[in-house]
Every structure is written in C-alpha cells, then in structure tokens.
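This follows on from our talk about sequence and fold. I would like you to pick a protein and set down its sequence and fold. Go ahead and set the record down below:
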Amino acid sequence: MQPWQKSAFALSFIFGTALAYSAHPVDMPHHITFSDSAHDKELHINAQLMDSVAITNLTNAKTHYDNSMSVRLFASGKFTDKFLFDTRAKISTDYTNRFINFNMYNPDEGIPFNKQSENKRTWDLFAANVSYELKPVKLLAGFDFLEWGPARRNHVILRGERNIYRPWQDSSSRIPDAAPTPFFGYQFTLGPIEYTQYAAKLYEKKNLGKYFHAHRLNLKLPKDITLGISETSLYGTTTEAASSNPNPDGDSTGREFEWAYAIPFIPFVFQEHLQGDQDNISLAFDLSVKTIPNWEFYGELLWDDMKSPTSMFDDSWWGNKWAATVGVARDKIEIGPVNLDWMFEYTHIEPWVYTHHKGGGYTYASYAQSLGSDLGPNSQELHTELTATYNFVKATLFFGAVAKDTAFGGRINDLHTPESAMDKKFLYDETTIRYKELGFTVSVKPWHWFSFRTSYTRFFGDYEGYRAYASGSVQW
C-alpha cells in the first residue's frame, strides 16, 4: 500500500459517516440560519467534510484501493410557507492505484470528471428542487433525482439516486453515483388520490436532445394499502452514426420536446399513437400493503413494450419485456433496548428491458446509467438483511444472490435489429455471471457532528474475494 493510501485509510477510521448525498444530514442542527423577524423567509446552511476508502480484491483482478474525499454543502429553506427549496452540492477528489482514463464530457461516458494524473481525478455534482403549494396543486421543478415505488433495494420504475455496488460495474473510469436530471412538474391531491407528473431532460450525447416524461396516479386505499399506476415516455434525437442502425424506423434526427406529454391526465399510450407510434412507452404498477402493523408487503411491475399482459411469460418474442420486484419487511421488532428491522426482496428483469431498437436516444438511461434498476436487463437478485439499532449504533447483516447475463440483450445499450433472434432466453447458463455476497455494515453517530460507517462483503461464485469499505465525516 502506498503512503497516501495508508494515510487515507487511517483518516477514514478517524472520521466517519454514511450519510446519503441527496438528503440533508440527518439530525443535524442548522448552524447558519438567516430569516426575517416573522420567520416567513428562512435560509439554512450546513457543511460536511467526508472521506472514504474501499479495498477490493476479486477474482482475476488486481487488489485496488480507492479513496474519495469530498466537501458537501447544503442549503434549504422557504421564501414563504408555501414556497420551499432545497439544494446540495458535492465536490470530490478521488485517488486510486488503478489507471484513470480521460473523460471527454460525453454523457454516454457517465458522470464527467477531470483527470488530474494517472491515479487522481476531481469531479462535482449538485442537486436542487423547489415546490410551490397552490392547493390542490403543487408546482415542482428542479435538477434532482426522481424515485417512484415502494421497493427498499431495487426500484424497477425510477430508482432515484440509489447506488448499489455491482462487481461488473467496478471501474476507475466510471463515477458510481447516479446522475440528477432537470425537470418540471406538478402534483394534484384530492383526498386519497394523488396525481404526479414530470417532464425531464436526459443526457445521452452532447448537443442532442433526449426527453423523459412520467406520470403517476397514487391511490391510498383502506387498511393502509397504497396502489400506484404510472406511465413513462422516452424519446430523442438519433445518437448513432448515420446508417449504422438497420431498423427501418431507426432515424429520428431532430426530435424535439413533445409538449403534448406535459399536459396532465392524458394517457401516454394514446398520445404516442397520435404522434406516429415512435416513442418508448412503458406502463408500471406498484403496491404497498401495511395492513398488519409493522409489516409491509410490496411489489413493483414494469411493462415495457409487451403485446398484452398474457404475453408476460411468452419467450418467443424479444419485445415481451418486463421487470418486477417483490418484497416483505418487518419493522420495529423490539428486543429490550434493541430495535430490529428485517426485509427480503426478489428482483427479476427480463432480457432487453430498458433498451430500445431505435438506439441510445430511446434507452431508459441518462449519463450511461439506468433510470430503473442498476442490475440492467436479463438479471435477477435475491436479497435479505437484518438491521439492529441500539442507541447511536446501527448494524446490518445481509445476504444476496445475483445473476447477470452478459449475452446480447443484457446491456442497456444493446440494439436489437431485424437480423437479431426474435426469441429471448432468461439467464442463459453459458453467459450468465452468478455470485453470492455475505456481509455486514456498522454505522455509529454518537454526536450530530461526527459519524462513522464501515462494511465488509465477501463474494462467492463467479466473483471470489472481498470488498472492505469505510467512510466518515464531520458536519457543521
């Protein structure tokens, strides 16, 4: 281990945390606050210094060390009681013993960064949102993460900024964070009915438009049951080289923002037909049942270009694409002074899900990352975890089994053509990576200004080895 790696590793155990970037630091008092005398207008400012290190040793790969140090700034408040805002920024410096490639700021390379040397890079990220209440309507806008569904680990509809370590995605030339997206929208609330709609800009290639629309009807039913029904629409300008896509409708040069999708209450599947049946439309359902106190049974189902609901299990046509997550959780199991939480979740994603035959301008992705589950097409995961909380200490024991097919149709940028096979095969034995992971996470937060987290994961199967991680922060 190099001297800088040793010092970084030591520093990570002196300072500590595992605070999510999107949320305001948990239980953190507002050290800097500006407001008028009536507190009608308020501005709260916080700052956080964070350091982390990861040691990864997997089959057929050199042991590598990755250190990340960041400064994080948070600002939130209100202009009136109905006009709220929240913003946060992160400036990071990463060190590694692996070679870092140049980044040319093309979105299909992922989140951009500046290469400082063979083993050092710097990058930054921000997110912000505002809301204005005009009952029964709330206006929404921001450059932020969009998340829908009750899943606790793998959202298949909109995953927001959740990031889960996947060994096949581990690269020194890829920023693991999710990317925010600019959007505007609104939310209507009428008793137990809530309707939300977003229109967003995505990023695939420089100077080429890619757009995303989503709307959702959320129904709060008796017995603490919540049902969600949503649609998404995605389209953009052709990103592939001329004549490289043999599909007859592959050319969509000059696609612009379709304002009809921004009008509320119009089913996207009908609107798409009126616009020439040329966009990537999906329909989704999600359900959360909390009828039994402290229990939750939940599920998410995404239908992507299927002929009909009865064709879900018909593998004779590649376009019968769907993804689902089902889970059960038990919260607040009190054993003396210790609180236990348990969850079990299974995710199944068919081949070709999130892809589109018209290419990158239509894939369900931004900055080379899926808007849905980061498992990607043709994959599955079984995951369970048990969390114990005592005072300021939280410990989680987890186990997972993952399968990921690397064959054609298993990557989000794969392009199905008229020459491609018309059937599909879920998790073909010869091309599927399978592994299990067993590990633990421990986090402590004895004071509001000091936090610490460490984790260890052991991998078995096609990936053998371990990954050790520690992160920490001081916040003010």
